Amino acid sequence: MKAIGIVGGGFSGTMTAVWLMKNSTEKLQIYLIEKDHLARGQAYADIDPHLLLNVRADQMGAFPDDIGHFYRWLQDKKIECSASDFISRKIYGDYLSELLAKAIKESAGRVLVEIIKDQVIDLDAENKKLVFETHTPIQVDEVVLAIGLKLPAEFNFTEIKAGPGPITIIGTGLSMVDVVVYLHSIGHQGKITAVSRRGRAPLAHQFYDATVARPVYDFTKTHSLRDVLSMVRGNLKRFEWRLVIDGLRPHTQLLWSGWNLKERSQFLRYLRPIWDIHRHRISSQHQKILNDLKSIGRLEIKAIGFGNFQPETQIVMKCHGLTQNKSDFVKKLIEKKLVTADCFQLGIESQTNWIHTIGPLKRGQLWESLAVPEIRKQAHELANHLVPKLVVVL
Ligand SMILES: Cc1cc2nc3c(=O)[nH]c(=O)nc-3n(C[C@H](O)[C@H](O)[C@H](O)COP(=O)(O)OP(=O)(O)OC[C@H]3O[C@@H](n4cnc5c(N)ncnc54)[C@H](O)[C@@H]3O)c2cc1C
């Protein structure tokens, strides 16, 4: 019986497991290994319900062939919302947990699923064994690395206490928005100062109906960074900027893979800060909280330049954003040459045909590999590769 070990039970690992269970017609053993938040991962953990998805409900289905699935699930659960609402991330975690439980139930008898709540600390490549902190090692035929990125070390909601005192947040990206929204929800009354080198915060979504004109990009071949920039500049004169950015989304992976190292490096150095705040947008509700706090002087978002910054507050939260997973486990995989890190340290790439990466780990190869739309597709494709779906031709 084939055994597949999935390391990491966030969105990537969970949806790979779900598709494996759906695909399998023969006996299959799946080990789904998660040290913290099964079926939720870091993004959809049992967090404060005020923290919202940054994508609308009707776009967040976990299946690439049914993106409306999440919205229908919300309706089945009688959760009042419209298709364009931004739902709590905690609820999305409930959705994923239910998908996993359902898949396990429906594939019982065919697929053996063992959920292991432990940390994988090593991989014995010779014997294809996953080694754990406490669990006995398990032998597998294939390994899926679904271990995600690293959240800022000091980003822990339960440790942030409401109080009157001022707080400094280092970082002005999505994690900063989470912290500000959380502090607001627990009634924090002090001044919040968020700082970063450029002082730029994520911009907000806006709803456009289907009749609004959108740019059409015709990327059939690779295009230089310079070409793409000039196309984008041209489109910005004619279309709303959000539609210009969103129109690029289906092509980002193709463009990135066609750029040479110099172009990738230029993009990361000069354009990424601008890209990030336009591409990774926040809900209008979260933007309103930020704007309200700014207008009464309780939130200041500012640039601190390149010099040394000395926070003036006692409480300092580090919100540098997501970085490459550099756990001891990953270091060992690199040492053993089972995976390599790309030169920009964005992700890792497998060097053997029985180890597979998914989601944010593929950023070095694909760049756009962080969010649900990309990962739900990857999970489906990876499962089809590992356990091809049997197509019955009549
Ligand atoms: C705060 C936040 C909000 C987001 N909001 C949205 C959104 O609204 N819409 C959207 O499309 N995308 C969103 N994303 C992006 C996207 O959905 C996530 O990046 C995605 O969930 C990544 O899933 P993952 O499973 O690859 O990684 P993770 O969620 O990081 O899960 C990896 C899991 O692996 C486990 N793990 C790691 N190492 C080991 C080990 N050695 N042994 C055992 N377990 C291990 C970790 O505990 C973790 O649970 C958000 C991301 C974040 C961080």
Describe the structure.
34% of the residues are buried. A hairpin with a 6-residue loop joins strand 12 and strand 13 (348-350). Helix 1 (11-23) packs parallel to helix 3 (89-107) and helix 1 (11-23) packs parallel to helix 12 (372-386). The longest helix is centred in the N-terminal third of the chain and has 19 residues, at 89-107. This protein has a 5-stranded parallel beta sheet with strand order 3-2-1-7-14, with helices on one face. The chain is built from 12 helices and 14 strands. The chain has 394 residues and is of the alpha/beta class. Helices cover 35% and strands 15% of the residues. It has 3 domains: 2-150 and 322-386, 3-Layer(bba) Sandwich (FAD/NAD(P)-binding domain), CATH 3.50.50.60; 157-204 and 281-318, FAD/NAD(P)-binding domain, CATH 3.50.50.60; 225-279, no CATH class. Flavin-adenine dinucleotide binds at residues 7-13, 33-37, 41-43, 53-55, 119-120, 146-149, 322, 327, 329, 359-360, 370-372, 375.
Order of helices and strands: EHEHHEEEEEEHEHHHHHEEHEEEHH
Bound compounds, each kind once, are: flavin-adenine dinucleotide
Global outline: globular
- The overall pLDDT, averaged over residues, is 92
Task: Write out the CATH superfamily name of the largest domain.
Answer: FAD/NAD(P)-binding domain
Largest sheet: 5 strands, parallel
